[in-house]
Amino acid sequence: MLRIALAKGRLESESISYLEKCGYTFPEKSDRKLLIRDSENNIELLSVKPLDVPIYVYSGIADIGICGTDSIVESGLSLIQPMKLPFGICSMVVASFPDFKFNGRRTKIATKFPISTKKYLSSKSIDADIIKLNGSVELAPVVGLADAIVDIVQTGRTLKEHGLTIIDEVYKISAMVCVNNVSYRTKRMDLQFFFDKLWKLLDS
Ligand code: PRP
């Protein structure tokens, strides 16, 4: 049996429909069910918060995880990432008002992604204060809580609606498949079978 931790939210329906296109079926699928099975193919899906996917995989509770690159970077965990999926494409960016510049004065950056932000700032040798928020990050510069934000941009609509613009790209994001280190060695046949189906769809 293979257990897959799947990121809830924006990637969820695309991840499930990708697996369905690969031939898996989830008859118990519903908005509220957090654990669904494809008994015929011995697959179990756990529906978890995106940032929790790497934790389930790293701990070995799940053999496989499907989440955005951002969740993997933010976990700080080292996971095998054998496959990028063709959806969930977006970017982690620094955004602010068009005249924003990192300058001498200590900048305040609001974000849901403190690890990604810290890595970006240290790669640019920028000293700034990080304010960790849990959502609605675009509001922070508008009301004066922060000078800039580090956040995900997909369509760019949320930035635009708040008069913000992209200052720099931190990294590109897509849906990613990650695998537990032990499962990678002990469940080779099952994983091979699973990845063959995914590769086949990717190549078609
Ligand atoms: C994400 C992200 C941005 C928005 C970007 O937030 O943090 O706020 O989507 O999407 P766009 O470029 O298509 O406008 P999410 O919807 O997950 O909500 P949250 O702010 O409450 O975390």
Overview in brief:
With 204 residues, the protein is α/β, with parallel strands linked by helices. Helix content is 32%, strand content 31%.
Number of domains: 2
- Cα Rg: 19 Å
User: Which structural class do the helices and strands define?
Assistant: alpha/beta
| Strand segment tally | 11
Order of helices and strands: EHEEHEHEEEHEHEHEEHH
* Poorly predicted segments: none
CATH topology of the largest domain: D-Maltodextrin-Binding Protein, domain 2
The first-to-last residue Cα distance is 26 Å
What would the principal axes of the Cα set say about the shape? elongated
Subcellular location: Cytoplasm
Main location: cytoplasm
Pathway: Amino-acid biosynthesis; L-histidine biosynthesis; L-histidine from 5-phospho-alpha-D-ribose 1-diphosphate: step 1/9
EC number: 2.4.2.17
